[in-house]
Design brief:
The protein is of the alpha/beta class and 569 residues long. It has three domains: 59 residues, no CATH class; 220 residues, Rossmann fold, CATH 3.40.50.2300; 198 residues, Rossmann fold. Helix content is 41%, strand content 17%. The protein has an eight-stranded mixed β-sheet with strand order 11-10-12-13-14-18-19-20, sandwiched between helices. Strands 6-5-7 form a three-stranded parallel β-sheet. A hairpin with a 4-residue loop joins strand 2 and strand 3. The longest helix is centred in the last third of the chain and has 36 residues. Keywords: Membrane, Signal, Transmembrane, Transmembrane helix. GO terms for molecular function: peptide hormone binding; signaling receptor activity.
């Protein structure tokens, strides 16, 4: 009740002050809850969601105070950094700048500079090498001294590291729409950084832990692919959440070259001796081949569970496609094998009119600017993935613009980048009518994560559970999609030999023969090394004993012979 009375009092005072007349460009902020368009004799278009107090002419002290706080026609310089996906991300940033200017003009004007190769593909490595030099040149020689600077990277963690280091020294806010490296969560090092893209390892690992609790699984086997393109952070963070609770969980982990068919079989044989809940962290194509081998070994019945993780519920060049279909000879077996698989990922985008309108606008701008994209190039990213990054870029720009408007409405200093970043902490945002997200108390995005499983009706991987980090629930709940996970106890009906287990059928023989062939060279090498070590030890021991002063041999115990003269007789 007191808050309502205070609000009404402020509104009456402000409106009466406006009605009394005021300078068209002289006013101070006194709140952010009342929306005006054009009010009173001033005929001033006030910023949306801000309550102003106009100061009458005639009082020099009040006039000076009003002029000092005048925020008319504030220029904001946005430096957007694009390391990949230019065909979608650059148009998305341009749409975001236009929409922000339409909302906040004429009091706020966003001038955007986009730095990056205007060509589809991933140029992260070369972009990182050049970013520090470009940032220094832009900050000291190219930017307008009369504007406030905000840096907006759209991807490439290594480049964001450089940018965030420099932003810290300049005390400039840096709001990142992508780049999910764990080092970016260190806000002691990067105090002016806010990450709008969620962490791909920490929160996913937390969702994984809740999944184990949901089904009460306690004995877990981790198999991580040796390939360097595998998400090594996930290979570390997923087991780490269980190592901290070793009194409850039994953990066994190892790495294997899952790119090789015979090694996949060896890994499965090794894993099934340690547990029935098997986590495979590898490219999804490799996960698929491993599951096919598991199906042919009878390991995809309801007595086994396989788990993997994927950043997004879409095709990704680093982690692959999250579904079983590839239009090849393994599709039928893969479809049956995937019934034993759970995938931890992020929910897909909610398709609605604002999102579809945004995608149309991005596509039109991309065509108009002739931003080329070769899907067969080695550095190509899938169109589906870059659309997600485009949405994040737009959402980040609009969220930053919203905070700039609110900071001005509260009379706060935009030149304090660290303070600006901290004002985004513990705030929720939503754009394009997507699921809301929250910037947590560490300046990182909290969101909603999904668990996918095979749905018999759709014959595809569908969302069955959700993990909500947004509201601090930190627990799983049934997905609103209504899909459920129904296990299939189908067992491989083929001959159980290595020709059927290996997808490329390069080796044949029984499972036992295969395992013996795998371990026999190691056994022989170990035995040979042992014999050599024993021999060397005995040889050294004998030498030391022979040369010891305590070694009294039989010859040393004989009395010396007396010399006798030869008889001349």
């Amino acid at each position: 009740m007191q808050a309502l009375l205070l609000f009404l009092t402020a509104a009456v005072c402000c409106i009466s002050a406006i009605d009394a007349g005021c300078c068209t460009e002289s006013f101070v902020y006194c709140g952010k809850t009342l929306e005006h368009e054009r009010t009173g004799k001033c005929n001033v278009p006030l910023i949306a969601n801000a309550l102003y107090k106009c100061v009458e002419k005639g009082d020099p002290v009040l006039q000076k105070q009003c002029d000092d706080h005048c925020k008319n026609n504030v220029n904001i310089s946005i430096l957007s950094l694009v390391a990949y996906g230019a065909e979608n991300i650059i148009p998305a940033l341009q749409v975001a700048a236009k929409d922000s200017n339409d909302v906040y003009a004429p009091f706020l004007h966003f001038h955007q500079t986009i730095h990056g190769r205007r060509k589809g593909g991933d140029y992260c490595e070369s972009f990182t090498a050049a970013i520090s030099q470009y940032l220094g040149k832009f900050y000291y020689t190219e930017r307008s001294a009369k504007s406030y600077l905000l840096i907006l990277p759209t991807g490439c963690s290594s480049a964001i590291n450089y940018a965030a280091d420099m932003a810290r020294e300049w005390n400039v806010p840096i709001i990142s729409s992508a780049g999910s490296g764990s080092e970016l969560r260190d806000k002691q090092r990067y105090p002016s950084l806010v990450c709008i893209l969620p962490s791909k390892t920490e929160e996913y690992a937390a969702a994984f832990l809740e999944l184990l609790r949901w089904y009460n699984w306690r004995q877990i086997v981790f198999v991580c692919d040796e390939d360097k393109t595998t998400d090594q952070a996930a290979c570390h963070n997923f087991p780490a959440v269980l190592w901290r609770q070793m009194d409850y969980y039994s953990v066994y982990e190892f790495t294997e070259d899952l790119q090789q068919a015979d090694r996949r079989v060896a890994a499965l044989v090794r894993a099934r001796t340690r547990g029935r809940v098997i986590v495979i962290l590898a490219h999804m194509d490799v996960v698929r081949l491993t599951l096919v081998a598991a199906y042919r070994m009878g390991m995809t019945t309801d007595k086994f569970v396989f788990i993997t993780s994927l950043w997004y519920n879409s095709s990704n060049p680093i982690l692959g496609l999250p579904h079983w279909y590839r239009n090849d000879s393994l599709d039928q077996d893969a479809k049956l094998a995937y019934q034993a698989l759970l995938i931890i990922t992020m929910p897909g985008l909610t398709k609605n009119d604002p999102l579809l309108d945004f995608i149309d606008a991005v596509n039109q701008r991309s065509l108009q600017q002739n931003i080329t994209f070769d899907t067969s190039a080695s550095n190509a990213k899938s169109a589906e993935e870059t659309k997600i990054y485009a949405v994040y870029a737009y959402v980040t720009f609009r969220s930053a613009a919203q905070m700039i408007n609110e900071s001005l409405a509260n009379g706060q200093d935009l030149s304090d980048g660290i303070g600006f970043a901290h004002r985004m902490y513990n705030r929720s945002f939503t754009w394009l009518e997507q699921a809301p997200f929250k910037v947590n108390d560490n300046g990182d995005r909290d969101g909603v994560y999904a668990v996918l499983a095979f749905d018999a009706h759709s014959q595809n991987m569908e969302e069955i559970l959700r993990y909500d980090a947004l509201n601090g629930w930190d627990e799983l709940y049934q997905s609103p999609s209504g899909h459920v996970w129904i296990r299939n106890a189908t067992v491989w009906s083929g001959t159980f030999d290595s020709c059927s287990l290996l997808d490329d059928q390069q080796q044949c023989g029984t499972d036992d023969d295969f395992i013996l062939a795998e371990v026999l060279p190691s056994i022989l090498l170990t035995v040979t090394a042992g014999i050599f070590v024993v021999h060397q030890c005995r040889k050294r021991h004998n030498w030391e004993w022979k040369t010891s002063q305590w070694n009294l041999s039989a010859i040393h115990l004989q009395p010396p012979c007396s010399k006798r003269k030869r008889s001349t007789q």
